[in-house]
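In response to the reviewer comment on reproducibility (Comment 2.3), we provide here a single inverse folding case reported in full, input and output, so that an independent group could reproduce the run without further information from us. The structure tokens appear first.
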């Protein structure tokens, strides 16, 4: 019992510090795939809202998209981590992200006592985009604008926005947006207190094979140059660095396979992932 009380007391100053602030959470990986982790994530998000924090959820859905494309015999491939997206593929992406996945997340949060509202980036032109420079990937976009008024209004009235990363283009086309990139751009536009990336790894791992609990932006850049940070972690830390440059106070890379990972990261002194802060 005393350990539980100590945990609550440890969380109290953080709850007080972050009351009224915005946390943008990129939701993906195992946390979206495993049933028990889906429920724990929904509980965490509902709790954040109840203690006065404003969570904004931006989600992926790659594995489900891949499965449905396979069932429909639509070939799929990736270039530099981006799914090559033609019109048929985009139809499936939009159906899965804005339909199946988005509404399941909304239901899970609502079932856990929260009040979630699902949105596509196309709703109210919440997200606008242009085609990425690499035309070979097709209808994949870079965000050019975020309508923060929609997000703020939803949050102000006690609801939790859950956003699928599909965007409108000024050319009249729709675009598939990488979920990490979309979440980072939304965090910047909102000047969020925290940008949290849920992943399937512990966080940033140092040359000694151990988790690094806190890094400054310049240290991350050095780790990339030294090839200590490699592979799929590079785009994730790049999103974090861009978010910090854009005005976000703190970025976190957290293992979504751990139940209650978000609460453990933001409400405890030690955290469980890697916190990335500015150089000052």
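Designed residues, in position order:
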């Amino acid at each position: 019992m005393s350990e539980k009380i100590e945990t609550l007391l440890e969380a109290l100053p953080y709850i007080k510090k972050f009351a009224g602030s915005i946390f943008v959470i990129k939701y993906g990986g195992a946390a979206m795939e495993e049933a028990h982790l889906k429920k724990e994530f929904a509980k965490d998000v509902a709790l954040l809202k109840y203690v006065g924090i404003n969570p904004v959820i931006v989600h992926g859905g790659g594995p489900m998209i891949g499965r449905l494309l396979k069932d429909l015999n639509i070939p799929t491939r990736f270039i530099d981590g981006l799914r090559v997206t033609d019109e048929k593929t985009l139809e499936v992406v939009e159906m899965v992200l804005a339909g199946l996945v988005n509404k399941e997340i909304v239901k899970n949060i609502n079932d856990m006592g929260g009040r979630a509202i699902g949105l596509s980036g196309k709703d109210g032109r919440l997200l606008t985009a242009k085609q990425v420079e690499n035309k070979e990937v097709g209808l994949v976009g870079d965000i050019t604008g975020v309508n923060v008024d929609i997000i703020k209004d939803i949050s102000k009235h006690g609801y939790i926005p859950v956003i699928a990363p599909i965007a409108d283009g000024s050319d009249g086309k729709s675009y598939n947006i990488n979920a990490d990139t979309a979440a980072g751009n939304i965090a910047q536009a909102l000047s969020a207190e925290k940008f949290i990336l849920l992943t399937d790894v512990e966080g940033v791992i140092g040359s000694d094979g151990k988790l690094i609990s806190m890094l400054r932006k310049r240290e991350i850049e050095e780790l990339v140059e030294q090839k200590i940070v490699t592979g799929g972690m590079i785009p994730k830390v790049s999103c974090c660095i861009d978010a910090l440059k854009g005005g976000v106070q703190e970025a976190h890379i957290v293992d979504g396979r751990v139940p209650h990972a978000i609460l453990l990261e933001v409400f405890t002194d030690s955290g469980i992932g890697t916190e990335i802060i500015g150089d000052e």
